Model the fold of this input.
Amino acid sequence: MTAMADTATLTRPAGPAAAAKPDAAVSVRGICKTYTDVEALRGIDLDIERGKLTTLLGPSGCGKTTLLKIIAGLIDQTSGEVLVNGRAVRGPGPERAFVFQDFALLPWATVMRNVAFGLELRGASKTEREEKARHYIAEVGLAGFEDKYPHELSGGMRQRVGLARALAVDADVLMLDEPFSAVDEQTRRKFQEDLIRLREVEKKTFLFVTHSIEEAVYVSDRIVLLSRRPGRISEIIEPKVDHRASPDEIRRDPHYLDTVESIWQGLRNYVE
Amino acid sequence: MTAPVRLDGHTAGALGAGQVAAAPARRASFDRPILWRILSVALVLGVWEIAGQIPINFAFPPFSEVFAAFLRMMADGSLPAAYAETLKPLVIGVVISTVLGVGLGVAMGLSRLSEWLVAPVFIVLQAAPMAALVPLLTFVYGIGLLSKTLAVILLALPVIALNGYKAIRNANPTLVAMCKSFLGTRRQQIVKVIIPDATPVIFAGLRLGVAAGFIGVMLAELLITPTGIGDLITYHRSVADYAEMYAAVASIVVLSALTLAALQAFEVRVLRPEKRGS
Done:
């Protein structure tokens, strides 16, 4: 435990983006996490800008999901603190919503009840929550599937249900934990395009975890590169991809390809 | 030599119906497992009939005779009377085991303290050879309804409680985390996520428990108190009415199977709507 405090000072100085930005939706201050004998995260300092899509990217086992779950309040940190809208995180909160890697849908509930589940837990009336749920079911492109059960849907559709559920509680910060990893490649691409569109419509802060470099560069405003265990911030990249261009144009854009390549070169050291 | 002829006479109806329906639409019949189930039962009964006609043993009557004995015993009222006697401790015992077992199982799954307090008892009970314990009940509680009910509970309760406990303990942790992240209270977590997620395993335990309850009541009637179906079996064996004896045995087997099927149907129909029609 005491070693944590020392190591925090060893990490690279917070980048320009991490210096007190006036409008950070989420501020991560000196987060360390040690499981019984594994150091997962060491001295993470990070500001996540409001209304932007920030991606945590890194090799598997770098603690990116751990960091996301600490911000979500699902895991306790060993030291450091997380501020959301300036208030310290003590657990899950109404201003944050989570999209789970393995969907986490109730198999015995319809799409409608699953999407409305967050509102149900908050005690919203049936008509109110169904009205909202219906709106977001349509928003993620699942209109007409309200009465289906999860096992009747494809993997991609199930994750849309998870996304709609997170949108329905109207949180400021939407956290997505490798949401496309259990989904096939075609669905994944379509999903990425939808995510970009959704971001324009919803004006929320998105925090996204992935291990796919292409995906990160394609959808993100900012990419936070984490190093291998113990996870530290090794680099912050702003891809500056013009999302007004068509998806195919973006995927062939030299700037996009160069960014992917340079991240790969940076990560390469960790993969060996 | 007369056996094949008799067989045709007795089972052609059942077999024929299956074949006629299956032949013109072979593919469709796979969608209707009911036909195959009937065929399976008819096959077993057919083999029984042949074995009884040969006969493989003088004490092994063919199905047709057993069925006739069954109708006779229904008509003279001895079978219904025996069931009234047998079902009383069975139903009381199963109901108590269900309420207590599911309750204790859920409590053990949710709290470490009750797990340490209660689980060892059931683990020992489940491992114990119950047939050896049943006679002890007679010494303590005599030969009445109480003793028989306790035998049912002794067999049914451990399996129901331990399944409930495992079901709750193995509730999907991602769903629990999801409930937490959407600000569910502990109560909502238990009622809306953990218990519904655990129902299939709880119900598997209930089915095993009910089956064990049938064993318990039969053990009690064969070992402690010669009443009900157990008495019917013992009596007809002692006077060499083998058809009647088999009728009593077969009827309790069928009743047990139907009860379990009904329990499963109830679970799918009422508690797991997503499995309906699939």
Summary: The mean pLDDT of chain A is 82.
